[in-house]
Specification:
The chain is α/β, with parallel strands linked by helices and 326 residues long. It contains ten helices and 13 strands. A hairpin with a 2-residue loop joins strand 1 and strand 2. The chain binds zinc ion.
Length: 326
């Protein structure tokens, strides 16, 4: 099978990295390290896929809508951290969150003094946003028209789902005010977990994840579209989950598994706990494993130092006409 040019840097130096993942393959650009899916699903296929989902995406990992409603507190804590991080770059202003899900991040940002708006394709997400009294538009960002210009645009765990990442980034640029800030997070295919698990990495899944970025390729995409990079960093999800996946990845790399992708991500199912059922006592052996995992935690704090954490965050600023940040 012949690979096409890289959509990020146009290089012809592309090769198929993972083949026959269902009907899809993942192609890697050897020049900028961007990974993309071939064949590209049609918009009809994607519409059908997302319509059939009762779930929607709320941050790191996929959770049920019911879980989100029953237990919003962990999300609120996570999103307060996002707001805190954002304030390091812009302390106030008009903010648009693309893919705002149930609106809890927007709610936290509003509480912190930002003027907020959201965009969300999921009907259930829109309903929850409205309950919170948020201003949201239903639809896919690329197909929508906006009258305003924004000080901040955020895109948390969205770009990996889109068919046209270049066009999305370019549209964000056109909608930012001068010196506006763009915050983006997505899975890092250069992470240690991705390297250890290869095509069995939990973040590889179709047709929801179509683009796989590294710090290098996402920085390039942003720079090519007029942005100045202010910060590049990687991070990890819930510590016990990360440790378990890390251990499994080491075993996989040593040849202990030839299995299909298994649900390691169930390790952190706390967000989905139904509050109607009281929690069962934790067996002693599980407690011992939990304690051992805590001892291993320092390991995972090392990963972001080498930019190989599982999540990638880039904060960029709209450059002025001379290509420089004011
Ligand atoms: Zn490339």
């Amino acid at each position: 099978m012949k690979a096409t040019n890289c959509p990020v840097c146009s290089s012809v130096e592309t090769e198929i990295r993972f083949i026959n993942l269902g009907k899809y393959n993942i192609v890697k650009c050897n020049k900028c390290t961007y990974h993309f899916t071939l064949p590209v699903p049609t918009t009809e296929e994607l519409d059908q896929y997302y319509k059939a989902q009762s779930i929607f995406f709320v941050g790191s990992g996929v959770d049920t809508f019911e879980g989100y409603l029953l237990n919003p507190l962990p999300y609120r804590e996570r999103y307060l951290n996002r707001v805190k991080r954002l304030k390091e770059f812009k302390s106030t202003g008009q903010l648009l969150d693309i893919g705002c899900a149930g609106g809890i991040f927007l709610d936290c940002a509003r509480d912190s003094g930002f003027t907020v708006e959201g965009v969300e394709p999921s009907e259930t997400g829109i309903e929850l946003c409205k309950k919170l009294g948020l201003s949201v538009q239903k639809g896919f960002f690329l197909n929508m028209k906006f009258d305003s210009q924004y000080d901040i645009i955020t895109m948390y765990d969205v770009l990996e789902h889109t068919l046209y990442p270049k066009e999305e980034v370019s549209k964000v640029y056109s909608m930012l005010k001068p010196e506006g800030i763009f915050v983006i997070t997505l899975p890092n295919i250069d992470s240690l977990l991705a390297r250890l698990h290869g095509s069995k990495w939990d973040m590889i899944g179709f047709p929801e994840h179509l683009n796989y970025f590294t710090p290098k390729s996402l920085s390039l995409l942003l720079k090519n579209n007029g942005f100045e990079i202010l910060s590049v960093r990687t991070f990890n999800g819930e510590p016990n989950y990360t440790i378990l996946v890390l251990i499994k990845g080491v075993l996989r790399a040593m040849g202990f598994f030839s299995d299909k992708k298994t649900a390691v991500n169930n390790a952190d199912s706390s967000a989905q706990t139904n509050s109607n059922n009281p929690p069962l006592p934790i067996p002693l052996w599980k407690q011992s494993i939990k304690k051992s995992l805590i001892l291993l935690r320092p390991l995972i704090y090392l990963l972001p130092i080498f930019n190989v954490g599982e999540g990638l965050e880039i904060i960029a600023q709209k450059a002025n006409h001379n290509g420089k940040v004011n």
